[in-house]
Design brief:
- Strand 2, helix 5 and strand 3 form a beta-alpha-beta unit.
- The protein starts with about 30 loop residues before the first helix and ends with a helix.
- It folds into 2 domains: about 160 residues, Rossmann fold (3-Layer(aba) Sandwich), CATH 3.40.50; about 35 residues, no CATH class.
- It is an alpha/beta fold.
- It has 8 helices and 5 strands.
- Keywords: Lignin biosynthesis, Metal-binding, Methyltransferase, S-adenosyl-L-methionine, Transferase.
- GO terms for molecular function: caffeoyl-CoA O-methyltransferase activity; metal ion binding.
- Belongs to the class I-like SAM-binding methyltransferase superfamily. Cation-dependent O-methyltransferase family.
Length: about 230
């Protein structure tokens, strides 16, 4: 996922200055005020203190747009509780906001296998995760996820072993991830992918004025959606 500050083409709706205050590129709402209202009335009041701390820390990161939004984090937390997930995986960690949301939702003996190519970003949020008392649930592996997934698939014990898997990583590998993860998630389990509507560009006209990174990744996202 790239920053919006790339000086390239306009967003889908053609407004150069369209941007929510809170990682608005993740929302289809066309009103800053409405989105902020939802955050202030329904999301922030229910946000655990540890997640608030990590969100505020991440906001200072130059690539803060890569983080999971507060509303999405709470949705993940709720979903994991609803399906009684215990053994989970996350591909694409960044500073660990969604990871923390997952860890807080899991039972005391729950586990998360977390993969990311950059441990430095993960360590930004690690003190908050440790303070929240859930670091013992996390096994972090640094490096590209695909080779690790291929290695996991060689062990039959890993097949169907995961209750929930969340992917927020390189969109051009989404389908490659899916082909492997479908073997690792249990029957009745859930695989969640971030940005599957990709700023609304999945329904944009072929000649629509899209930012370069949005146009580049759109086809990969649409390919996954057809799988």
């Amino acid at each position: 996922m790239a920053s919006n500050n790339d000086g390239s083409e306009s967003p889908v709706n053609g407004q150069d200055n369209f941007r929510h205050q809170e990682v608005g590129h993740k929302s289809l709402l066309q009103s800053d005020a409405l989105y902020q209202y939802i955050l202030e009335t329904s999301v922030y009041p229910r946000e655990p203190e540890s997640m608030k701390q990590l969100r505020e820390i991440t906001a200072k990161h130059p690539w803060n747009l890569m983080t999971t939004s507060a509303d999405e984090g709470q949705f993940l937390n709720m979903l994991i509780k609803l399906i009684n997930a215990k053994n989970t995986m996350e591909i694409g960690v960044f500073t660990g906001y969604s990871l923390l949301a997952t860890a807080l939702a899991l039972p005391e003996d729950g586990k998360i296998l977390a993969m990311d190519i950059n441990r430095d970003n993960y360590e930004i949020g690690l003190p908050v995760i440790e303070k929240a008392g859930v670091a013992h649930k996390i096994e972090f592996k640094e490096g590209p996820a695909l080779p690790q997934l291929d290695q996991m698939l060689q062990d039959v014990k890993n097949q169907g072993a995961y209750d929930f898997i969340f992917v927020d990583a390189d969109k051009d590998n989404y389908l490659n991830y899916h082909k492997r993860l479908i073997e690792l998630v249990k029957v009745g389990g859930v695989i969640g992918y971030d940005n599957t509507l990709w700023n609304g560009s999945v329904v944009a006209a072929p000649d629509a004025p899209l930012r370069k990174y949005v146009r580049y990744y759109r086809d990969f996202v649409m390919e996954l959606n057809k799988a």
